[in-house]
Amino acid sequence: MNFLFRILFIFLKIYTIHSLDNGLALTPPMGWLSWERFRCLTNCTAYPNECINEALFKRSADKMVSDGYLKAGYEYIIIDDCWSEKSRDSKNRLQADLERFPNGIKELADYIHSLGLKLGIYGDYGTMTCGGYPGSLDYLELDAQTFAEWGVDYLKLDGCYVDLEGMEEGYANMSRFLNATGRSIMFSCSFPAYKELKANYSMAVEYCNLWRNYGDIDDQWADVRDIATWFADNQKFLRQYAGPGHWNDPDMLIIGNFGLSLEQSKSQMTIWSILAAPLIMSVDLDTIQPEFKAILLNDNAIKINQDPLGIPGELVSKKDNILLWTKPLLGTEEVNGLAVGIVSNRTDGYYYHYNVDLTSLLQTDSYEQFHLTDVFDENSSLNGPLASTEIMVRVPPSGAVLLLISPIEE
Ligand SMILES: *[C@@H]1O[C@H](CO)[C@@H](O)[C@H](O)[C@H]1NC(C)=O
Ligand SMILES: *[C@@H]1O[C@H](CO)[C@@H](O)[C@H](O)[C@H]1NC(C)=O
Ligand SMILES: *[C@@H]1O[C@H](CO)[C@@H](O)[C@H](O)[C@H]1NC(C)=O
Ligand SMILES: *[C@@H]1O[C@H](CO)[C@@H](O)[C@H](O)[C@H]1NC(C)=O
Ligand SMILES: *[C@@H]1O[C@H](CO)[C@@H](O)[C@H](O)[C@H]1NC(C)=O
Ligand SMILES: *[C@@H]1O[C@H](CO)[C@@H](O)[C@H](O)[C@H]1NC(C)=O
């Protein structure tokens, strides 16, 4: 199928399904979330710089602005689990932990907004959150109103301690309650992750801006590889549901933490960009090393991820355990652009030399009309006008090469 047909096909599929119309997430959401790095650390005596408290979100927000993350597109700063008191207040409202958030969420939201950022918060559809804090079951409407009053811009609603039967309807109700507040609140749903492919994905599209599909990511390459493999194995099913306003979410970027090497970090950025995945970092922005930060801020990787067509990419071939991922990009009227990710799933010790044949990928052999950017290597000899339909790249084990191929404007 050529690209135009493929795009038409995707649009037709999506428009036979109603999709959430709150004007948000027209490109994959970008931001920062506390969970993977900071978990449920609540002892601020033992962990003064890492516990879940007001200071963590304020210092991370400051860094988002001062270090260029906001400028690059990372906009949401999102509180995950363990932010609340263990009980609701006298009016049954959720309340932030009185010691760790002494000024409350409203004040934090005001601070975040004053920097030009947006604030996200975490809740759970069930009786309790995964960390044992109050859940929203029986209080969905009140919690939606409370979040809106606080000035929250994004809600991640988890699915621990839930009766899986009828879970979709509960999330749909929450989506309506959020809408009824009149505040634009991005809605991140977790039910597909709990029901995997048995979830009603049409309802995810109809009621959510993004949704987790699969298990939590931890800080290791094996998880990036496992998630990527699951998305590849199920891509035919998953891709039809993602597009502007509604996205599959393979979970956080763990780049800059303990578990990924520099080359593996390029692999995660490559795969997430090509999947049109939300780019939600979870890292200590005060201690991240510059070479990891550069990957998160790479403007061409972000451009691929944020492409306005919003077409989730796919694994198109696998040879010698080298995975070739592609994503069509907005181009000219005549021809699309293309992102090509060459990801090594190998474990042997040296660079693997890999020949990429672009003829079938570009669906034209007039390569002269394209410009190539080797996204993570500004000194690459490949950078410049595309010189051939066959290009040779070297990929280190568990690393990646990401190519951006754009039509040259007349
Ligand atoms: C917090 O950590 C301190 C210092 O390690 C320890 O003495 C204290 O018992 C901990 N508090 C709780 C509630 O676990
Ligand atoms: C959703 O809302 C409808 C209408 O108010 C209600 O009948 C239904 O019980 C709710 N379902 C869940 C699972 O919350
Ligand atoms: C609520 O939903 C309506 C209809 O889908 C939409 O037009 C409106 O923008 C939504 N409002 C908010 C605040 O999300
Ligand atoms: C999913 O939900 C939609 C809308 O409520 C419904 O029409 C459809 O039958 C459901 N699909 C499945 C497979 O249950
Ligand atoms: C990557 O390698 C792992 C470990 O050998 C394997 O389980 C997985 O299927 C591979 N992924 C793909 C997409 O081939
Ligand atoms: C490109 O070359 C310059 C000059 O040699 C060097 O400073 C820079 O680090 C190189 N960039 C990369 C990504 O290797």
Automatic annotation (TrEMBL):
Keywords (A to Z) from UniProt: Disulfide bond, Glycoprotein, Glycosidase, Hydrolase, Lipid metabolism, Lysosome, Signal
Single GO molecular function: hydrolase activity, hydrolyzing O-glycosyl compounds
Domain Alpha galactosidase A C-terminal as annotated: residue spans: 310-399
GO biological process: glycolipid catabolic process
Gene Ontology cellular-component annotations: lysosome; membrane
Signal peptide: 1-19
Localisation per UniProt entry: Lysosome
SUPFAM superfamilies the UniProt entry points to: (Trans)glycosidases, Glycosyl hydrolase domain
UniProt keyword Lipid metabolism present: yes
Enzyme class: hydrolase
Enzyme Commission identifier(s): 3.2.1.-
One protein family per Pfam: Melibiase_2_C
Family: Belongs to the glycosyl hydrolase 27 family.
Complex and partners: Homodimer.
Protein's name in the database: Alpha-galactosidase
Source organism per UniProt: Hypothenemus hampei (Coffee berry borer)
